Automatic annotation (TrEMBL):
InterPro entries given in the database record: Disease_R_plants, P-loop_NTPase
SUPFAM superfamilies (alphabetical): P-loop containing nucleoside triphosphate hydrolases
PANTHER family reported in the protein's UniProt record: DISEASE RESISTANCE PROTEIN (TIR-NBS-LRR CLASS)-RELATED, LEUCINE-RICH REPEAT-CONTAINING PROTEIN
Domain of life: Eukaryota
Name under which the protein is recorded: NB-ARC domain-containing protein
Length: 68
């Protein structure tokens, strides 16, 4: 489906080059896991910016720095 194809495309594009990815208004951990997966998906130097109204949604194991 569309989501699976999108996930595969993100992996393809970020595996061998650094990228800046913005995930805006994330509502649940499932979205975060589907779109950002694990750190091993991304080439060294990549940055992911995640916005959410629910700070508890973003575990410290995934997020390095919080801004409010």
């Amino acid at each position: 489906g569309g989501v699976r194809n999108g996930i595969l495309r993100i992996k393809e594009l970020t595996f061998e080059q650094s990228a800046l990815i913005v995930l805006d208004d994330v509502h649940d951990v499932g979205q975060l896991n589907a779109l950002a997966g694990g750190r091993d998906w991304f080439y060294e130097g990549s940055r992911i910016i995640i916005t959410s109204r629910d700070r508890d949604l973003l575990p410290e194991s995934i997020v390095n720095v919080f801004y409010e």
